[in-house]
Amino acid sequence: QVQLVESGGGLVQAGASLRLSCAASGSIRSNNAMGWHRQAPGKQRELVATITSGGSTNYASSVKGRFTISRDNAKNTVYLQMNSLKPEDTAVYYCVHWGTLETWGQGTQVTVSS
To answer: Using one digit for the tens of pLDDT, what is the confidence trace for 76-113?
Structure first.
């Protein structure tokens, strides 16, 4: 079983930056992909970014060029660096681990004011 704990969310103004962290524990394998989803009120869930164990990344078009996903396999931690934040980035951000099961963290709120 995998446990994921996110941190780093908060309230910021448009144009600011935040870095989210996701610490994984339990039955972690370094070759599992991880990523971040987000869910805003009244909107569909969006897969924001993914990263493989080898470091290959993919981003939603809405965040490409502004967000960067990275991972530290030694620490079983994934990061999401978010720059040039916009009000439309406001959402609950969830860390995801793809192993035998798909596991989600509890989420961290990001609120961007205009």
So the answer is: 899 999 999 999 999 999 999 998 889 999 999 999 99
Tens of pLDDT along 6-20?
A: 999 999 999 999 999
Task: Give the span between the Cα atoms of 96 and 76, in whole angstroms.
Answer: 12
Q: What is the DSSP pairing of strand 57-59 with strand 46-51? A: antiparallel
Structure tokens at 2: 């995998």
**Closest Cα partner for 110 from 12, 21, 42, 4?**
12
End-to-end CA distance of the chain: 40
Distance from the Cα of residue 22 to its chain's centroid:
7
